Structure formats: structure tokens, C-alpha cells
Amino acid sequence: MIKNKNIEWLKENPFKIFRISDFLHPNEYEKLSDNFPDFENIKKENFFKFENNKFAITSGSNEYNEIILKNEVLSNFHNLINSNNFKKIFFYNIFKEILFSRNMDFKHIYKSLRIPKFVNKIDKNLFSKYFSIFSQYKITIQYSYILNQGKIVPHPDAGDKVLTLLFFFPQYQDDQNNKKIRERESEYGTTFWNSNFKNFNDKHIKDLNDQVDFKENSKIYYQTKFKKNEIYGFLKNKYSWHSVEPIDVYDKYVRKSININIYY
Fold first, then answer.
1. Beta carbons of 56 and 114 less than 8 angstroms apart
2. Each residue of 206-253: pLDDT tens digit?
3. Is CATH 2.60.120.620 what the domain over 8-263 is classified as, yes or no?
4. Where exactly are the structural domains of the chain?
5. Antiparallel, parallel or unpaired: β 161-168 and 231-235
6. What is the pLDDT of residue 202?
């Protein structure tokens, strides 16, 4: 299923961003895209609703078990993400970068230097958390839908998150009859920000005036394209600010992605 394992590092400081192009074999990507659950065909009560017109189906939920795992193609992708091969590419092969991703964060270094153990659910027991020879890691998978006029406000991600992967599913990339829509859609990747605002506790900047102030006092660090079969990743630290700018394609447009997270 995986075609390309070669990580291309795009940015280094103040946080690392990377990309793998042509991640899956084209036919596998197309099957995944074709089986991506249609927003209109899912009962809205089955979604987890975020602010600003974002909805999601997340692993571990009843909806994920019923909608995702009962679909053969999506279930196979779920198994791929939880496979040793996937963990090797996105964890073990870049462990040095993960270890040094948070300068002088001794809690992170302590957790990272223990033996990694991937689990379905992280044990919150204090002994397991701080005194075991193992550090527990968990992978989550989120099928994300952002409706037209929706957005994700700037935030750096939760402190217990190690790595985020973004896998995009544009609808119009190959559509030669809708050039304007195709070009507009391609701009709605993820925006990463270079900001002096330090924030380890995943503060989402919700107030509109604060959002304006943040953007006026920050610079765009990197802007991903919204392209087929490219997987982007970034390593969490207190500077890893990112957002999805307001979508404006057409009334019923839905921005689709699969977001994969590793927590400890």
C-alpha cells in the first residue's frame, strides 16, 4: 500500500515540518478517496462537532467503529496506520528529531528516553506514567470535514501530542472544467506560523480581535498545498502554531482530510 517512505524535511526551526509525496500507490489512494465517508450521507449526530464548521469521526468512538471499521478499504487503512511499518517510518526512524523537538523540556526528554510502548489506551496511573521503564504512546485517527466558510483557529496542539500527520483529499485537483475552483481549493492546506507567542497548553485563539492581533504579529512559516497523496507532518512543541484559514470555495464544498496523531 505504501509507495514512498522518504521523508523530506521542509522546515527546521522553531519546529520541524516534513512531507512525503506519493505516499500511497495511486490506486490505493484513489480507493481511499472513493471510500472517504460522504458528509451528506452521515447523520449529523454521529459527528464530533468542533467550532467554526468543523466535524470529525475519531478512532475509538462508536461512530468510527460503525462507519470506518466496517468498510473494508478504510479498515485496511486503519490497520496500516497501526502497523509496525507505519510506526517505523513516522516514529522510530525520526526518533532523534522527536527527542530533540522540545528544547530544554525535561519532561519530554524523560518520557522520550524510556522504552516506547504503543497501546490502545494510555494508562493514567501515576506509577505507570512516571516510574515505569516504558513510555506509552497512542495513535489516533481523525476523519476531518471542514465546511465552506469553516476554519481552524491558530493553536500549537496539546502538550501530550508528539507528532501530527495531515493527509489531504481534494475533490477538484484533476478537474479541468473547474479551473477557478481547482485553484482555490489547492490553497486550503494548513498554514504554519512563526510566532513569539509561547504556549504549551494548546490555547486556541478564539476571539476574532485576538486572531487579527496574532496574525499581524506573526509570520507565515510554511503553507502546505492541498494536494492528493501528500502526507505532511510536524513535531509538536510550544512554537508549533498552525491553522486552517477560512474556506471559501462554494456553498456546499467540504474540505476532507485524515489527521493522524501520536500522543504519549
1. no
2. 999 999 999 999 999 999 999 999 999 999 999 999 999 999 999 999
3. yes
4. 8-263
5. antiparallel
6. 64
